[in-house]
Amino acid sequence: MSPHSKNLVLLFALLALVALWSFESTRGWKPPATTQVISVSHPAPRSDEPLPAVASKTVPPGKRGRQRVLTPGLEHRYAFDLDVRSAEHIPGAEAGRNWRHLGWSGVLELAYLGEEGRQHFFSARVEPTRVEPLSEEALIAFRSQLERPVYVAQDARGRVLSIHFEEGMDSETRRFLRLLLAVTQFVAEDGRSWSTEETDPTGDYESEYRAGGSANTYVKTKRRYLRTALPLRAPTRPGVVVPRLRGHLDFMLDEDGLVREVTGSDVVEQGGRATGLPQTRAETRVALTRLETPRHTALSMRMFREARGRLQAEPLTGLETPRVGTAAVEWDRRLVGDATLDVLLRVLETETREQERSQARERLAALFRLLPSKAGLAARRVRQGAVKDDVVGQVLEALGSAGTLEAQQELGRLLGESRLRVTTRALVATAVGKVARPSAELTQALARAVRTTKEGELKRAVALALGSMVKGLERSEPGRALGVLDGLMGRCEAKRLDAETCLRALARAGSARGLEYTRAALSHRSAEVRVAATEALGAMAGADVDVLLDRVLLEDPEARVRVQAAVMISRRVAGPHLRAVAQSLRMETEPQVRAEVVRMLGTLLTVEHAAGELLRDVVARDDSEDVRRLASSLLAE
Question: The whole model's pTM is what?
Answer without folding.
Answer: 0.83
